Amino acid sequence: MQLQTSSEIQLDLERRLARVRDGMRAAEVGTLLVYYGGQHNASRFDPVFYLTDHRTIGASVALVPLHGDPQLLLAQSWDVERAQATAAHFTVTPSNARDLVADAVRNARDLPAPLALSGRAIMPIAVYEALRAGAGVEPADGEAIVPAVAATRTPIELARVERAAEIADEGFAALCAVARVGMREYELAAEVDAALRIAGAEDNFGLIAAGASNVAIRPPTDRRLEPGDVIIGEITPCYHGYLSQLCRTYILGAPTADQRRVFDLLVAAELAGLRAAVVGGSSAQIAVEINRVIGAAGYAEYCRPPYMRSRGHGLGTGGCVPADINEHSPRTLERDMTFVVHPNQFVPETGYMMCGDMIVVEDDGPRRLTQTPLKLYAAEA
């Protein structure tokens, strides 16, 4: 992955802002007030980060007028300098947690009307009531404006997702290299996390579980690894605000015939799902194809809750579209969407096994960003 220069990143941010303003214009919005609470995780989109490349520590508000200079208000006055280094196209203004929304509403009075709000779903009720009282009007619904633009990756964003995918591959390689009988699950998770951070990850939403027969993926515990354990890993590093995910299975010993058969089934299901991940297709069809393959093998009843929830999903902070991928997903796939496809599956013979990859949708079909080969890994000689 080629390193991005500050001027390239800044130009990319300005283009993101222009696209958001196009969305505002289409929605007949004069000013968009974007609130975010500063809780960064793998399943939530951060619209303030998308607009500014700044991950706030605590609450923040981005004020985006249709014309004129956008503003970034921070609840932490001491964080202004860091924000200015990334959000040079915004006027960065210090505030505090108590007055943040009041300051934003006061500033919005001089900006074009009508006012629309993004972030109501995570905004405390008291904060929302203060915003509405200060504005003197019920703000319009602006929730969809930024996510609609952020559904597809720009070249700068895609480069970050690609690097996160490379880091995820390195994390699973570390898991295979260090897993041993007697090691505690949390020790294995710590080794993987360390490998990710050495490779450049700034965060990791990692789940690693082990057992003779797993029910599902879960956080690691103090259980010691035993011979023959099925180690399942969901490795999700974050690189410059963008995440990738890799799901794989490692057997601490020689795989059984059932384990090989079931994992081969998951590979076939993933490949079927990927063939459906095309521009103009529906995200639901990915799940339909995965479930068709697994169901045809006799496991149709295990392709729905409580055994399975989704066949993939977007990832948070910089983006989260198309959210959960299931047979009822409404999202139409677009070029440069990135998300994980994972036919992770519980079956009675083997328990829960994992197989999944980060992809980008391109004109000629999906491209796997995670490059770890699609096979069952094992510690056998």
Strand order across the largest sheet: 4-3-2-1-5-6
Supply Rg. 22 Å
Structural category is alpha+beta
Secondary-structure element order, N to C: HEHEEHEHEHEHHHEEEEEEHHEEEEEEE
In the CATH scheme, what's the topology name of the largest domain?
Creatine Amidinohydrolase
Largest sheet: 6 strands, mixed
How many alpha or pi helices?
10
Structural features, described:
This protein is of the alpha+beta class and 381 residues long. The chain has two domains: 6-150, 3-Layer(aba) Sandwich (Creatine Amidinohydrolase, Chain A, domain 1), CATH 3.40.350.10; 155-378, Creatine Amidinohydrolase (Alpha-Beta Complex). Helices cover 35% and strands 19% of the residues. Strands 4-3-2-1-5-6 form a six-stranded mixed β-sheet, sandwiched between helices. Helix 9 (257-275) packs antiparallel against helix 10. It is elongated.
Task: Please summarize what this structure is.
The chain has 381 residues and is of the alpha+beta class.
